[in-house]
Amino acid sequence: MSERWPKVVFGLIGLNMAIVGVTVYAATSDATFGVEPEYDRRALAWDDVKRDRSRSEALGWRVAARAEGGSLVVRMKDADGSPVADATVRAEVFHALRPSDRRSTDLVERSPGEYAGALSMTRPGTWEVRLSARRGGDRFVADTRVEVVSGATP
After folding, report:
1. Judging by DSSP bridges, how do beta strands 88-95 and 71-77 pair with one another?
2. Same domain membership, residue 58 and residue 117
3. Nearest of 129, 130, 133 to residue 85 by alpha carbon
4. I need a surface site. Which of 23, 56, 94, 116 has the fewest CB within 10 A?
5. pTM score, two decimals?
6. pLDDT (tens place) for every residue of the chain, 154 residues total
7. Other C-beta atoms within 10 Å of 129: how many?
8. 153 occurs within a structural domain
9. Does 154 map to a domain?
């Protein structure tokens, strides 16, 4: 009887190690799980983030984004409805169900106020789009969403 207890103890320890291993594997291999990159730095700089958002709202610029083929296309207009031309625009996108799979690129102006960049957004569903734009001394940040429907042209 006394020889059985060490086996039970080591068996329970082994079972616990197996459960921990499966849990760690599931947590690190699940693409639907995502942590905001540099969250701690952004949290410490929250006043700066809030100030950037307030300044962006004060500019009155508006954005509309869409997936077009293998590209992200963004139209930007100022408070008067005129195209925001000659800006430097950067986009980061990720699917709502795959927040750890982020893609980013610089967008190139195709026509006044219309910017595009190659970003494969073929998975149907909601995509989060985070934009930052600079024109002269103005800096604009915005978050928007793009809906990609099934059967869309990749």
Report:
1. unpaired
2. yes
3. 133
4. 23
5. 0.74
6. 578 888 888 999 999 999 999 988 887 777 777 777 777 887 888 888 888 889 999 999 999 999 988 889 999 999 999 999 999 999 999 998 888 888 999 999 999 999 999 988 888 999 999 999 999 999 999 999 999 987 544 4
7. 21
8. no
9. no
Question: How many CB atoms are located within 10 Å of the residue 84 CB?
Answer: 24
- DSSP calls for the chain: -TTHHHHHHHHHHHHHHHHHHHHHHHHHH-TT----TTHHHHHHTHHHHHHHHHHHHHHT-EEEEEEETTEEEEEEE-TTS-B--S-EEEEEEEETT-TT--EEEEEEEEETTEEEEE----SSEEEEEEEEEEETTEEEEEEEEEEE-TT---
- For residue 50, what are the domain limits? 39-148
In a domain, 128, yes or no: yes
